[in-house]
Amino acid sequence: MTDFQCFEITVDDSVGHLRLNRGDKRNAMNPAFFEELPRAVEQLAEDSDVRAIVLYSNTKDFTVGLDLKESILHFEKGSVAKSAKSMYHRVLKLQQSFSILSEIDQPTIAIPTGYCIGGGIDLIAACDIRYASSDTIFSIREAKIAIVADLGTLQRLPAIISRGDLSELALTGDDFDAEYAREIRLVSRVFADRQGAIDAGVQLAKRIAANSPLATGGTKDILRSVYEKDLDANLDRIALWNSAFIRSNDLGEAMTAFIERRPPKFSGE
């Protein structure tokens, strides 16, 4: 298996294990994370022995989201138009890093534990099934850092949770716990602790792997065509939106407030 900075992959009993492995940074998503994720997924998907994939963290926290200290939100030098065009194509590439989990034939099971923040929601939303431990804390955090979630959360969650629940969580950026996540059907099941959730997710993957890969791949493909009918167009729309507004004063204030460890003061400009 290829060596990665941010991931560890193994195969056991027809199940591919994709582990977030940047525990010293609480699996914050830096540029290397987005470069490595699709390569790691492809490596597992191309293995004929792998019939299902589980995605979880090697340490307590699943991910705290975007790494603001190694941010991908930098601007290209030059004109506003050049910068916007560059950002647009960058967002499309980042989206594909997560979309590959939905596009491969093998069913994918996300098992968030600890913190699952911001980009973590984008990541688990791209998976087919979600289990969690009782200590998991979720947040669609982007509104708190003056951006619109652009890697799949707002496009995929309408097929998973209700509009009212999604609107409340996306507009406030509030934290919510695993029991509430189960109540709104973001996750299918909640387990007492991290290891219990991982064990249950792996056992589920083994039951799926015991079935015909033609049948599981076909079932996933049909469900994707039903639930993701307008996905590409909606992902493109948010990429265009953020490329136009990403240079806002509010984003600069959010970054400064994070560094200075104070609440941001947004102006809407």
Would you give an account of this structure?
This protein is an alpha/beta fold and 269 residues long. Strands 1-2-3-4-6-9 form a 6-stranded mixed beta sheet, with helices on both faces. Helix 2 packs antiparallel against helix 9. The radius of gyration is 18 Å and the shape is globular.
Key words describing this protein structure:
269 residues; alpha/beta; 2-enoyl-CoA Hydratase, Chain A, domain 1; six-stranded mixed sheet; three-stranded mixed sheet; 46% helix
The amount of helix comes to 40-55%
| Sheet with the most strands: spatial strand order | 1-2-3-4-6-9
User: Residue-averaged pLDDT, rounded?
Assistant: 88
Question: Total number of β-strand segments?
Answer: 9
Structural class: alpha/beta
What percentage of amino acids are in beta strands?
A: 5-15%
Q: Total helix count? A: 10
Blueprint (SSEs and pairs):
Elements: E1 7-12, E2 15-20, H1 31-45, E3 52-57, H2 80-103, E4 108-110, E5 115-117, H3 119-125, E6 129-133, E7 137-139, H4 153-156, H5 163-172, E8 175-177, H6 178-183, E9 189-191, H7 194-209, H8 213-227, H9 231-245, H10 249-260
Helix pairs in contact: 1-2, 2-9
Give a short overview.
This protein has 269 residues and is of the alpha/beta class. 46% of the residues lie in helices and 14% in strands.
